[in-house]
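## retry 2 of 3
previous attempt timed out at serialization; input unchanged, resubmitting
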Amino acid sequence: MPKIHANGIDLYYELYGPPDGDVLVLSNGILMSAGSWAYQKADLSRHNRLLLYDCRGMWNSDHPRGPYTMELHADDLAALLDALGIQQAHIGGISYGAEVSMAFALKYPQRARSLILSSAVSHSEPLLKAMIESWRKTVVARDADLFFQVSYWMNFSQAWIEANQTTLQATAQRYHSLDFDALLELIDCFLGMDLTARLGEIQAPTFVMVGERDILKPRHYAEIIAGAIRGAELVVVPGSGHALCHERPGVFNTLVLGFMAKHQACDQG
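## retry succeeded, writing output
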């Protein structure tokens, strides 16, 4: 299990693809791990160097006491890249990981070759705050089964839920392995995040995608992000819920590779 000491903690990471390929970093959603990118590993590492890792507080990385901030996560990622000898990368992620990616692009603009954001927000409005507060209450209660019940349906479309009951049962069992103290730090970090006023500072070429049926972080948040970052592109993926990389992995991978290829060509041209 590879780990690197970075920014004072041990971070778990996985590297795939040709050593001389352009580096693509994917940061996880709040309940994901590096292993959650199973549908992405082969496609996205065929010609690129793919870096997956667990943020502080997630699964196989260290779970230090908080408070956590998006800026701290960005510092962790920068230190991880330093330890791996990577100066620049395409910086991407989904949900919480996409929000970490925006914080990274703001603090380390020279290191982000491009920015790839899925299912993200730059601030939280009352409905989203209420949803996440319901998560927080079950986490404080240390009730894994209740936490699963109040959260899973927000992450997927109805069609995906109906077709994947066996997968969801396995996921429910996985919730019993969560570190609730660390998860509380991650949730509080998210609830304290507000990057909207600074989005115009982002200089990296940016691609934003969102599921048409995302009820957790719906389309208008993606429109805010894409509208505030100069030249950003926005794609709404039909039929998908919040967990876009799971529900529409082929579309997700194609969109990521297409965006990267366009900007690689621009860099070479």
